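Example record used in the benchmark description.
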Amino acid sequence: MTAAVVLRPMSGASFDAYAVRAIPLLAEAQSRAYGSSAEAARASAEAAFFKICADAEPEASGQHLYVIEAAGVDVGALWFELRQAARDPYVYLYDWVIWPEYRGQGSGSAAMRLLEQRARALGARRIMLNVFNDNRFAADLYRRYGFGPASSILVKPIPND
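Model output (structure tokens):
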């Protein structure tokens, strides 16, 4: 039986703990996907995470950050932004992570259901996200939750002469 899962708004201390775990994961994925150096990928990941720190009220800028909690334990995180496209609001999911030691216990499924409820309450009509091509596990997981491809970003490296 899965423990009750809740989305708890992320505090400053919770965000710091989340960033310590998540920034290296994003940097590694960006480095693999884009062929950037580890330093450049780290800087990009840090910029993505800390752009929201300048705003004392992240939700005022459309950012929604939550700790995924099961039975009082922080088991992961959820970060999304409400966006508007031609009167067609949608949620862009930046991160949905269950920490490895808590995977396979149903918390991710419960968190996705809660995300859908929040998105609906905000007036969103869809949820969008990015998944790197080399992350087949995540791509398969998203497909199981009803996500499908909407576009592709193709990259062509330019060799040094």
